[in-house]
Specification:
This protein is mostly helical and 253 residues long. The chain has helices at 11-33, 37-46, 59-64, 71-84, 91-107, 115-136, 140-143, 145-149, 153-160, 169-172, 174-180, 190-208, 226-229, 231-234, 236-241, and strands spanning 212-214, 221-223. The radius of gyration is 25 Å and the shape is elongated. The N and C termini lie far apart (53 Å).
Length: 253
């Protein structure tokens, strides 16, 4: 394993929670200072969401918690920001959002038809973005390493394919699952409490799917009753939630 070539740049934390987040912070500061945040919220509320991919544009939430947004918010904002702030921010910031929109479209590709043409467009877009960033805040290129990581993206895409294939965005959604498993915890040992919750759920899954366990009193292997074992057959939605595949019985003969 080559640690430099086999650990690709991750687009969730490098782009959405990196470059886009920094530009959003600067834009929000400009709007707040100029008392234009209400105007921005009104435009964000009125923008059409029909053409967006999984839109997350709750205007009131985004403006109220502007410093605590997550990746899905930045992905949606990057697609519409130039249409919302065209006359509210300096031209350099507007140019930055325009290039960000192009960068997002290029990186969230699931299929690349011509690798050389695609990588040439991506490299040019990254260079344009870094140039605009230098005009907006030159020091950020030195203080934030994520801007430099963008330069390595074309090499990793050439090696591994589209950047969404090595994105951790889908796994970040499981943070919500872990938090739900720790609701009744005093937060003194959250990892232990979460594992205890998952273990209890696994026990239930084992019982209702017909699994056996050793009875400590009779010292015999026992299983649940017939009604419990047939519960999954009569409730396909519960079977689906537990990830149990449908088993079609073959006809004899």
């Amino acid at each position: 394993m080559d640690i430099h070539q086999d650990t690709p740049t991750e687009i969730l934390h490098t782009v959405l929670l990196g470059a886009v987040k920094y530009f959003w912070g600067q834009t929000a500061w400009i709007l707040d200072k100029a008392h234009l945040l209400d105007t921005f919220q009104m435009r964000l509320e009125a923008v059409s969401k029909g053409g967006l991919n999984s839109p997350t544009l709750g205007a009131e939430y985004i403006c109220h918690f502007k410093g605590s947004l997550i990746g899905k918010h930045f992905k949606s904002l990057a697609q519409v920001m130039p249409y919302l702030v065209y006359d509210l921010v300096p031209q350099t910031v507007l140019n930055g959002w325009s290039v960000i929109g192009e960068l997002i479209v290029l990186l969230w590709h699931t299929e690349i038809e011509d690798t050389e043409v695609y990588l040439a467009d991506l490299s040019r877009t990254i260079e344009n973005f870094l140039s605009v960033s230098a005009q907006c805040a030159p020091s950020i290129l030195l203080s934030k390493a994520k801007f430099h990581f963008l330069l390595h993206l074309p090499a990793y895409i050439r090696r591994f394919g589209p950047a969404v294939l090595f994105s951790t965005e889908r796994f970040e959604s499981f943070n919500h699952v872990f938090r739900l498993a720790s609701i009744y915890s005093n937060r003194q040992a959250p990892s232990r409490d979460t594992c205890t919750t998952f273990a209890a759920q696994d026990v239930v899954k084992h019982v209702v799917t017909g699994g056996h366990w050793l009875d400590p009193e009779s010292k015999r292997w026992v299983a649940a009753g017939k009604d419990i074992r047939e519960y999954m057959d009569n409730h396909p939605e519960q079977r689906h939630l537990l990830g149990i595949p449908e088993i079609s019985k073959k006809q004899i003969g």
